[in-house]
Amino acid sequence: MSQISLNFIAISVFLMTFSILLGPLINLSPTIPALTTLTVLSVASIDSFICHSQGSKLVLDGIANFSPKHRERIIHHEAGHFLVAYLLGFQVLNYTLTAWEAWRQKEPGQGGVTVDDRQLFNELDERTLDTHIFDRYCTICMAGIVAEKLVFQDVMGGLDDRQKLAKVLQVSGFPESAYLQKQRFHSLQAQNLLQENWSAYQGLVDAMGKRLSVSECIQTIEVYLPQK
Ligand SMILES: [Zn+2]
Description:
The protein is mainly α. The protein folds into 2 domains: 62 residues, no CATH class; 157 residues, CATH 1.20.58.760. It contains 11 helices and 2 strands; from the N terminus they run H-H-H-H-E-H-E-H-H-H-H-H-H. Strands 1-2 form a two-stranded antiparallel sheet. It binds zinc ion. The site of zinc ion (ZN) has 7 residues, from helix 4.
C-alpha cells in the first residue's frame, strides 16, 4: 500500500477517534464516524490496489495546488528535467504540472516531463546499451532534484526520480552499493548544465508557468542559448 493511502487511513483513524471522543458532546451518533471510516478505508484500499493510488494522488495534489509556493516548486523542478533533457539531445514529448493534468493525458504519477526514451529501453532490453545515452538519461532523472536545490536550497520532490534512476541502474547491472555514487555524479552533471544555462532555465520556468506548449518552450530556451 502506498504512503499516500496510508496517510489517508491515518487521517481517517484520527478523525474517527476524535469524533468518538467529541460525539457525545454534540449528540453525534457513533454509527456516523464508524460508517465514514469504513467508507474511507474501503475507498483507500480500492484506490491503492486497483487504481495504483491515482485517486489519492489526485485529491492530495488538488489540495496542494492551492498553494502558490507548491506550484512554483513543481514548475522549477520540472523545468530542470525539461532543460537538461533538451540540452542532452532527448526529445521532450510532453510535460504536466499536476496529477490532474497527468491523469487527463493518461500519464502515470503526479505529472512530470515525458521524454522519448524508447531507444534507451530498447537497448536495455536487447543488452546493447550505449553508455553515452544511459549517462544522459541518468542526468535527466536527477535534474529536477538539482533544480529544486539550486532555487529553494532544499528538496521536497524527486522520490519518483530516485526510484526511476535506481530502476535503470538495476536493469543495467549496477550493484546497489553504487546507487548513491551514481546519484551524486549525475546530480553534479545536471547542476553544471543548469548553472551554465541559467538564463535559459529561468526563461523556461516562465514559459512553463504560462503553460506554453512544448515547442514554444523549446523556442524560449533557444532564445537564451548562446548561438552555436
Ligand atoms: Zn522529477
